[in-house]
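User: Could you go from structure to sequence for me? I need the amino acid at each position, not a summary. Structure tokens:
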């Protein structure tokens, strides 16, 4: 048996034992439930662990409503044509497609790759580091560099611009030149899109004490009348990472907040290390400010933006949009035709899919 597969089973076994002790479960029942989730319902061990699916807090109805990532992916593949996936999965194509449709996105500064086709926003070629640095002069705040085919925040690099110098937001690259050499030679990802670094809206900064963009995740669908509808609304509030707001099941320190139809926070969740699970909170853990009832700035513009985008990205039936909110207004960061299913704490997933014929 391969070592990776062996480790997977060991991790799963240890999780079931841990859940048995933590929730005072019958071991035989716990292993039976794990088998049911993993084999019959296609949940990965990571999902079972992070969603704490063996917890007795979930009712029989709660469990009926769950949909695994594997099953949800199959459903999305049925309604979102693979032939059009490049519109969202290639971030360069996504940018230009949005621009042609007058959908706001962060300013493009350059596209850099290691097969000799790098270019600046004015389409002039980039053949060396000096060309690359010159392409960045339009920004006064810094740059965000994303793998063109990346997902879940993997490989993203950021630099702040201070007095015409660039400082890495993280420590993996000591200089902008070292990053350029990495991405044009030995980097894990072949191509990067370079965009202007955004600053989050002042009201969100006041709520969280963090300057980076803390984005919305808005899920849209084309309904039976072929009209776009907003069906899920969330905002991710950044945790320890100074660059990203990725939730990572709360273990990044980020918060997951569910929004009502008016764009106000109605529920907020954070990871509790003591309980090893997500718990409900009412105030920001660092600033102490109330989360419940917070009004997302530019809400109407955010909704209008994603509904217009859903129309332009047909024939895809359903898309998860990452939306940045700045003082000037909202911008589309990404569109995801393979968005993640709801966690148990977020609501009934199976009923939602059935209502809107997703899969």
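Assistant: Here is the amino acid at each position, in order:
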């Amino acid at each position: 048996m391969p070592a990776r597969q062996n480790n997977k089973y060991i991790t799963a076994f240890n999780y079931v034992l841990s859940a048995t002790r933590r929730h005072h479960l019958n071991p035989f029942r716990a292993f039976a439930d794990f088998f049911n989730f993993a084999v019959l319902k296609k949940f990965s061990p990571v999902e079972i662990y992070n969603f704490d699916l063996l917890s007795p807090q979930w009712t029989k109805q709660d469990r009926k409503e769950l949909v695994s990532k594997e099953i949800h992916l199959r459903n999305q593949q049925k309604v979102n044509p693979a032939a059009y996936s490049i519109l969202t999965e290639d971030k360069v194509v996504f940018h230009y497609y949005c621009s042609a449709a007058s959908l706001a996105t962060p300013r493009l500064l350059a596209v850099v790759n290691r097969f000799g086709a790098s270019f600046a926003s004015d389409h002039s070629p980039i053949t060396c580091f000096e060309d690359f640095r010159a392409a960045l002069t339009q920004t006064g705040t810094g740059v965000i560099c994303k793998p063109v085919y990346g997902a879940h925040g993997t490989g993203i690099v950021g630099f702040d611009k201070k007095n015409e110098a660039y400082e890495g937001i993280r420590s993996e690259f000591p200089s902008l030149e070292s990053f350029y050499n990495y991405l044009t030679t030995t980097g894990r990802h072949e191509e990067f899109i370079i965009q202007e670094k955004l600053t989050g809206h002042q009201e969100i900064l006041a709520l969280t004490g963090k300057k980076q963009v803390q984005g919305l995740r808005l899920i849209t669908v084309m309904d039976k009348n072929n009209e776009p509808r907003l069906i899920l609304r969330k905002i991710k509030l950044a945790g320890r990472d100074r660059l990203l707001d990725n939730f990572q099941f709360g273990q990044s320190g980020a918060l997951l907040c569910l929004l009502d139809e008016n764009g106000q926070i109605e529920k907020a969740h954070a990871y509790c290390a003591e309980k090893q699970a997500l718990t409900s909170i009412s105030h920001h853990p660092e600033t102490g400010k109330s989360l419940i009832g917070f009004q997302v700035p530019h809400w109407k513009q955010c909704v209008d933006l994603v509904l217009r985008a859903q129309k332009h990205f047909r024939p895809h039936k359903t898309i998860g949009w990452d939306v940045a909110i700045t003082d000037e207004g909202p911008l589309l960061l990404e569109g995801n035709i393979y968005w993640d299913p709801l966690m148990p704490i977020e609501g009934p997933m199976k009923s939602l899919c059935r209502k809107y014929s997703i899969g």
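One structural detail worth keeping in mind: The radius of gyration is 21 Å.
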